[in-house]
Amino acid sequence: MEGIVLRSTGSWYEVLSSEGKVSCTIRGKFRLAAEDATNPIVIGDQVIYDLNEDGSGVIVERLHRNNKLSRRAAGRRQGKEHIIVANIDKAWIVQSIRNPRINPGFIDRVLVMAEYLHVPAGIIFNKADLMDEAAEEVVMFFAELYAGLGYEVVFTSTKVEGGTKDLETWLASGIHVFIGPSGVGKSSLLNVIIPNSDLKIGAISDSTQKGKHTTTYAELIQLPQGGFIGDTPGLREFGLYSVEPEELSHYFIEYREYMSECRFPNCTHDHEPNCRIKELVESDVLAIERYESYLNMLSAAKSGKLDVGR
After folding, report:
1. Which CATH number fits domain 68-231: 1.10.10.250, 3.30.540.10, 3.40.50.300, 3.40.50.720?
2. Model's pTM, two decimal places?
């Protein structure tokens, strides 16, 4: 039987096929073949499975992946690749206007991995109903910055009628995924987009102003519009995986057309003289905010430290 993986809890996988949903395990060969990854089968994977007599299944083959979105694993599995979702049509980086506030470093790290892994990406600024004069200048600066780079930018609110209409247009087909810290409203968005879904919503910590985890496992949810959306646990960190320091600038899309103008062909745009990228940052042609994100990632990549992007 062939199907798509909808849910991954680490030991069991829910697979959707033309015959319905079935709970599956995987054969040990998958874990042996994926020593550098924390999870050999992920949501979005197309798989072949055999049925057991009790109605459960065993995944025996994973079909070719068109793409994947991954990050560097943290904790006891630090340094390995943690694949979030496979076969994605668009990865949406979810940020909130307030509570918690926008984290540009997080956005830039996800965008770098998306560019590196050939995953189209967009940005959702949620809780638009909390926009006030104090927040508007910062929020609109970053919204215009990323839109100007060619990334789709959508504003959403779950508190006003029609507040998710623009986003829902994008979700009408294909596989999408929400990536963001806890508390930015990923589950709240899904509760509006999918009537009667009743996904758990967490509170914001008063002491840290960061969200508390509510989603505990990755899940691919079929939408009434016809597409799929991946709901993932909130990520307080997003480390780059397998991006070499000398390659990093290639994944800042606004740098690509200028890199050949640097004095040195292997310029890292950090300390080298006659660097065209630095000149353009100093003259405000390229955003200093993105350049600072680049330097932070470059420093972490050179040192070999976990680039968490808190």
Report:
1. 3.40.50.300
2. 0.88
